């Protein structure tokens, strides 16, 4: 068994070093899907989180609580809901998005939007407590204040967005349901690892696992570097 594992690990390293075409295609699709999902999620989540941080209205606390709860959305439930919406009998079935990369982008975006929004709200709310009086004295509206604080806390928000990307890249349940894990079309790293492991193709599964782990670790290091750079620059 030890020899089998060593052989599989050696082959996995060879696949990575030689930039195996199948491995590279799966990794490239994974990165494209996750980047698109993060872009769409950030466009909605950053303004939403900022406005929730600085505005006060009846039911705000309940909305914040719901947003925080949505951070723990079960991926398979999200996948099922999106599957029903995109299926032929669903309201969006006419667009033919099911079992396409677009469906996976939607699933990942739905999962990470609450995460980015909730973390953004916390970051902006902390900044609002410090700058609220100054911004109000300048006559800033809620929208102006939100935009100002989004820019002022941009380095902290980069780490939030990177966390969203890491969550999207590691997703398997929802993308398996709506993407179908079709070879060469919707097969991403997480779904490929699950499939290849069940088939007993450990070299490819290990290779993809090492690449995914490297991406996640790299993102965390990048987030840490951004945080340290901001602290050195702005004290």
Index terms:
80% helix; MetI-like fold; mainly alpha; 235 residues
Can you describe what's shown?
- The protein has 235 residues and is mainly α.
- The N and C termini lie far apart (53 Å).
- Helix 1 (2-17) packs across helix 10, helix 2 crosses helix 6 and helix 3 packs antiparallel against helix 5 (101-137).
- The protein has helices at 2-17, 21-54, 60-70, 75-86, 101-137, 142-152, 154-169, 173-179, 189-199, 202-234.
- The protein has a single domain (38-188, 218-234), classed as Orthogonal Bundle (MetI-like fold), CATH 1.10.3720.
List the helices and strands and how they pair.
Elements: H1 2-17, H2 21-54, H3 60-70, H4 75-86, H5 101-137, H6 142-152, H7 154-169, H8 173-179, H9 189-199, H10 202-234
Helix pairs in contact: 1-10, 2-5, 2-6, 2-7, 3-5, 4-5, 4-8, 5-6, 5-7, 5-8, 7-10, 9-10
In short:
This protein has 235 residues and is mainly α. The protein is 80% helix and 0% strand. The mean pLDDT is 90.
